[in-house]
Amino acid sequence: MARTSAVASNPPRAAEGPPSETPFEALASICSVLVVALFILTLLAQNYVIPSGSMENTLLVGDHLAADRITFAPPAKWMPLVHYREPKRGDIVIFIRPAPEPEPDAAGNPQYLTLVKRLIGVPGDRIHLTNGVLYVNGVAQAAPREGRISMSSDPAYVDNFPSLLPTLANDRGAVDTWVIQLPSLVQDGDLVVPPGMYFMMGDNRHGSYDSRYWGLVPRANIMGRPLFNYWSFKSSESDLEQPGLGAHIAWMGHVALHFFTDTRWSRTFHRTR
């Protein structure tokens, strides 16, 4: 007779859920994200808010830009895979405005002014404007695709640079170094950009306080270039220039109340070029 053996059946196990995360593990995860974000913002990118209309309509007041700080930085052996290059004519660049001394902020503390402009001339270029037309090395340049020409208090100077000189004194009554230096750089009606220096202009040709007024930018002053506009909020220059904690809190409240209606959604992740 055949023999059979009874096999005890094991009851099915209940499905096990994911292991719960301990408070320490949650804190460690948050810290990891913050460290990575801090690394990116500090070494690779930087947040920058457009405070004026000098680059309209390429960049608008209230545009928030993610900026690349690596491409124009000196090459580093510890980052061999990163692409480095020198600034090129036509780049939009972020730089520290050259000045004999830092500009005072609202509280009177010295600070260096960071600007965003388009790079017009590299070392060796010959530059002049005639009747508002920009010439680089004798060739007329097309106006920026999204640029504009607003009203100007001194159209003769901005449209015919460097045949006319800017005002000799600045708004603080000091003699501008650029006015003294400019004639020595002019040859046959052209400004010749010297080695290690760059000529910048805003896309809003009449509404830009740029190299025509304060001079050439040393290579060391160039910090990076904007990559894209990650958020744009309808703003005016006065909105972003109000000093004091109270004004800052009031502006943040305005942003919170009008975030959805005043955000320029069409400019979100808009590439800067």
TrEMBL record:
Signal sequence residues: none
One of the GO BP terms on file: signal peptide processing
Molecular function GO terms recorded: serine-type endopeptidase activity; signal peptidase activity
Keyword vocabulary terms for this entry: Hydrolase, Membrane, Protease, Transmembrane, Transmembrane helix
Recorded superkingdom: Bacteria
Membrane topology annotation: Single-pass type II membrane protein
InterPro entries xrefs: LexA/Signal_pep-like_sf, Pept_S26A_signal_pept_1, Pept_S26A_signal_pept_1_CS, Pept_S26A_signal_pept_1_Lys-AS, Peptidase_S26
Catalyzed chemical reaction(s): Cleavage of hydrophobic, N-terminal signal or leader sequences from secreted and periplasmic proteins
EC main group: hydrolase
Domain Peptidase S26: 26-231
Compartment(s): Membrane
GO cellular component, one term: membrane
Keyword Iron attributed: no
Membrane-crossing segments per the record: 26-45
Protein family per UniProt: Belongs to the peptidase S26 family.
The protein's name: Signal peptidase I
Organism (species): Candidatus Sulfuritelmatomonas gaucii
